[in-house]
Amino acid sequence: MRFHKYHALGNDYIVCDPVDFPQWKNGPSVDEIRVICHRNFGVGSDGILWGPLPSVKSQFGLRIFNPDGSEAEKSGNGLRIFSRYLWDQKLTPAQTFTIETPGGHVQSVIKDNGKLITVDMGSVSFLSTKIPHVGPEREVINESITVLDRTFTYCAATIGNPHCVIPLPAVTSEMAHRYGPHLETHPNFPRKTNVQFMQVIDRNNIRIEIWERGAGYTLASGSSSSAAASVAHKLGLVDAHVTVHMPGGQIGIEIGDNFTIRMTGTVNKVADGVMHPELFAIKV
Fold this sequence. Notes:
Distance between the termini: 20 Å
Shape: globular
Largest sheet: 18 strands, mixed
């Protein structure tokens, strides 16, 4: 049961190739995902990348599992990591290739021998029916939401997975830890949501703190960077080229026509290893 661990700006994922796990014909179970991702009882990660899988429209298919066992539609950092894995394993001879996730198809471009990767993430939408978000069909822009002791102004968006972006004069990790779990599970979002607390620094830079659906507080996120930059651009606060600053580092976002997103960021390899069957003797 071989695994491959990478991180993208501190957001770490374990790549599990189905070829190395013939006993998991339909992918890992919720219990298996939870123990693998556990920081004390398992290998430890922000999620599992299950692939490559067959795909009709793309060259490679990918499923993405959160540490709580739920499945994510898309992950920008996960896609960069998976792209690096494909390159490292020589599963693709080309530096440009396509990947299918449940949240849509993307194109990856390998740079600097895999240490830097650009992903065309698709288009951001603010439409309630696509996010999804409760209420009549509309763009969810500058609406109010109350959790605990505070009411925030927020915008909702999707880039294949749901996001709640909250613009603020300043952001902190404490804020993400306090309010993030309640915003993630707010009834406005039928499928829960990723949460970004966003501070605009200038026309080309924003800062975000992230509470990720199914994973919790996260040092960096590619899809969160895409959503937050798009909201800032939609509100007229930034230009089309934005550097997103996070505790784990920086991601470059280019916003095109119709809010198409091109994301560029680093990937670092951590380890290759083998999971022992004893790992799965405990439930977490």
